[in-house]
Amino acid sequence: MDQERFPLYGPIHKALRSVMAGLIARSGAADWSDPKDVAAIQAEWENAMTLVASHHHHEDDFIHPLLAKASPGAHREIEREHEEQSRAREDLAGFLQQIASSDASGPQKQRLGAEFTVALYTYYSGLLMHMRREEGDAQSLLDRHYSFEELAAVNNQIVRSVPPDEMMLALGCMFPSISIYEQAGILGGIKADAPPHVFQAVSERVRAAIGEDAWARLAQRIGA
Questions:
Q1: 181-206 pLDDT, tens per residue?
Q2: CB atoms within 10 A of CB 12
Q3: How far, in Å, CA of 28 to CA of 151, rounded?
């Protein structure tokens, strides 16, 4: 029987894919001449980039040392891609701010918005390929050199390092994107380890994110 594996990348990568896909859809549908639409895109962009940047920092700080120990240099290409993606995010943020502050005409703003959306496609395509390499090559290397328990312990370190506001943002984006089995594993772990008031706050956030029907099934599964 195959050894059970701990998916360090799985749930958070599902969340990032979902958040970025939603941002791209709304960017493509936006009326860029309407300040309210632009402000909504900016807010969604900030949330998405908070999650992406935070996740990359967690990988750099907690996962890459494991990769380097297992195979010296194995993390370098991933870190190089993180640096490239960071620069791309800075460029996109500047472009978005330029659109928001521009006094261009409506048609001109719509053209700029279309250019931003295409640039967002390019960024997202690179992010997708990057995540697949991590889920494939990097996860396989980790599985060969570390036990389920060791990787679970690292994941717990990552979770404990996340500030409360950012954790609520991440959970709200993640839970609609993952299976009930993954949901139960994460929320069941919080129920077992966290103080009751923390579990209550997290449960309320998750419930709002996934809806009443899905919450009823999840609550029954974990005995909440």
A1: 999 999 998 888 889 999 999 999 99
A2: 24
A3: 39
Largest distance between two CA atoms of the chain = 64
pLDDT digits (tens, 9 = 90+) for 95-114: 999 999 988 888 999 999 99
Does the global pTM surpass 0.70? Answer: yes
Residues 6+ apart with CB under 8 A from 223: 191
CA distances from 174 to 51, 109, 179, 216 (A): 10, 32, 10, 18
202 alpha carbon, distance to own chain's centre: 17
pLDDT reported for residue 3: 63
Q: Which two tokens stand for residue 42?
A: 């900016």
**Residue 109 is encoded by which pair of tokens?**
């703003």
* Of 128, 132, 129, 119, the residue nearest 87 (C-alpha): 119
CB within 8 Å of 59: residues ≥ 6 apart: 78, 82, 134
